[in-house]
Amino acid sequence: MIDLVASLSAFAIAKCGALQVDVHRLGVSAMASRTAVASSWSGDPCGPRPNLRLTLTDNRGTPRILAVQPSLTIWVEGFVSSASVATGDVVEGHSDRVAFDPREGRPVKQPGPWRARMPLAEGATLTERAVTRLPDAMKGAEVDVVVHRGGIRLSVSGRLLVDGFQGERVRVRHNASDRTVVGHLVNSTTVEIR
């Protein structure tokens, strides 16, 4: 007899990028698989109410297709709040295993700090709906604009025209010439142009 709980758990782990999946209710009788020699799952198990298709094949090669609505808890790597915070406060968090609930939004994957979009309790899962990541450099910040051309390196001052995250492209106004240039934010005070 096929272990449908184990096969559903393995399917959901692969589809959802999960660390672990707990199956609370399979949504199909174990008796349905008593003559099956093979099984396969299809559909999206990552949603709040998954509607899946289970194909069971017997020893004669005859497939039987069932509609299944299991109850699952999907565990992923995420971040949780280190302390209770109010809306607008800076949120510090730490990495932890969290239950993914699509109704609450996707757990954030990038380390903070973040700003709370709503009140959060200590230990609350940090989701894209609950927090916004604070930029590494704020719009209007003074930065060094470092230009590399061949073997020459030139450094001038400038001002960020947008909030920036390290490694991303940002627009900068060169202070002396009042020209706008685009480069990569290396750290909170340096933009590099190659």
What does this structure look like?
The chain is built from one helix and 14 strands. It is mainly beta and 194 residues long. The strands form four sheets. The chain has a five-stranded mixed β-barrel with strand order 10-11-12-13-14. Strands 1-5-7 form a three-stranded antiparallel beta sheet. The protein is elongated, with a radius of gyration of 25 Å.
Q: Concise description?
A:
Helices cover 7% and strands 45% of the residues. It starts with a helix and ends with a strand. The protein has one helix and 14 strands; from the N terminus they run H-E-E-E-E-E-E-E-E-E-E-E-E-E-E.
Give the structural class: mainly beta
Order of helices and strands: HEEEEEEEEEEEEEE
Mean pLDDT value: 91
Instruction: Kindly report the oligomeric state of this protein.
Output: single chain
List the helices and strands and how they pair.
Blueprint: H1 4-16, E1 20-25, E2 36-42, E3 52-58, E4 63-68, E5 71-81, E6 90-91, E7 93-100, E8 114-116, E9 131-133, E10 142-149, E11 152-160, E12 169-174, E13 180-187, E14 190-193
Parallel strand pairs: 10-14
Antiparallel strand pairs: 1-5, 2-3, 3-4, 5-7, 6-8, 8-9, 10-11, 11-12, 12-13, 13-14
